[in-house]
Amino acid sequence: MNRQELVGLIKERQSYLCVGLDTDIQKIPKHLLSYPDPVFAFNKAIIDATKDLCVAYKINTAFYECMGIRGWESLQRTVEYIPSGIFTIADAKRGDIGNTATQYAKTFFDTYKFDAVTVAPYMGEDSVAPFLSFNEKWAIVLGLTSNEGSKDFQLQKVGEEYLYEKVIRTVMEWGTPDNLMFVVGATQTAQLAAVRQLAPDHFFLVPGVGAQGGSLQEISSLAMNKDCGLLVNASRAIIYAGNGEDFATDARNAALQYQQEMSEYLEQAVAG
Ligand SMILES: O=C(O)c1cc(=O)[nH]c(=O)n1[C@@H]1O[C@H](COP(=O)(O)O)[C@@H](O)[C@H]1O
To answer: pLDDT tens digits for 206-223?
Structure first.
């Protein structure tokens, strides 16, 4: 999916919600365990219940890889089930030397047909470049993450600036706002305005609302740009909103709350 299509989808749906399919077989409702592929059965119900409210789904590959071949099958069924026209993210946080990175890019873009992959930039340009060489595909590079450990490296000063600022500034030279996004954690309130100033045109994938306590209101007021420029992810707060027979209805209600709030912020941005 290209940028124009993504921006159009956000406008049409009045939503910048990304539903995170971090599907843990230990946490899904027990009645699904008798299905041939319980993880896919869960994801299918969540997708059916939320597909008109979100603009993206993020599949965190860890939750699938840990189940071996069965997990990869659930992942494939899930990504194929997501309606075309919705942005799909493989949250795989890959990063390796160039020829290996090329194989990772082929895995997620060619074999599984995702629109985007999350990429860890620690190994430098040759590890990121292969993800930027596919038409209408995206690398979503870790910029400033939502977790406590972001203090260990990302928020250390390198000369006058934080390491994360140096990373974002450098990585921006490798791609364009048409094929490169950054991960920016919703919990990083003090830094949100600075990150937006650093990368005014890029989309940010923003995890950390819901279970990690980040505020949708804050991220929206501090980091929205003229094209919205945000994909805000919530995983546990949506997919585990309920745990009974009607878990999908509970997930829909949680997603609807996010979407309604987002539509207000989009309106305010247009008005202001
Ligand atoms: O790249 C990510 O998606 C990511 C980056 C980050 O800084 N923080 C973060 O939580 N994530 C992912 O975003 C999701 C957050 O899940 P919830 O906290 O349940 O909404 C998980 O899949 C995390 O792996």
So the answer is: 999 998 999 999 999 999
Ligand 1 and 146: CB distance under 6 A: yes
Alpha carbon of 12 to those of 53, 183, 231: distances in Å?
A: 10, 24, 15
- Domains in the chain, ordered, with CATH? 3-271 (3.20.20.70)
Contact 185, 145 (CB under 8 A): yes
- Quote ipTM for the complex: 0.98
Query: Nearest-CA neighbor of 215 among 176, 258, 171?
Result: 258
| CA 85 to ligand 1 centroid distance, Å | 23
Beta strands 157-158 and 161-162, pairing class: antiparallel
Pick from 254, 180, 191: which is nearest to 218 by CA? 191
Helix (H) or strand (E) holding 190: helix 189-198
Q: What confidence tens digit (pLDDT) does each residue in 134-160 have?
A: 999 999 999 999 999 999 999 999 999
Determine whether the shortest distance from the Cβ of 211 to ligand 1 is under 6 A.
yes
**Ligand 1: residue whose CA is nearest its atom 22:** 60
Q: How far is the CA of 207 from the centre of ligand 1 (A)?
A: 5
In the predicted model, is pLDDT for residue 272 greater than 80?
no
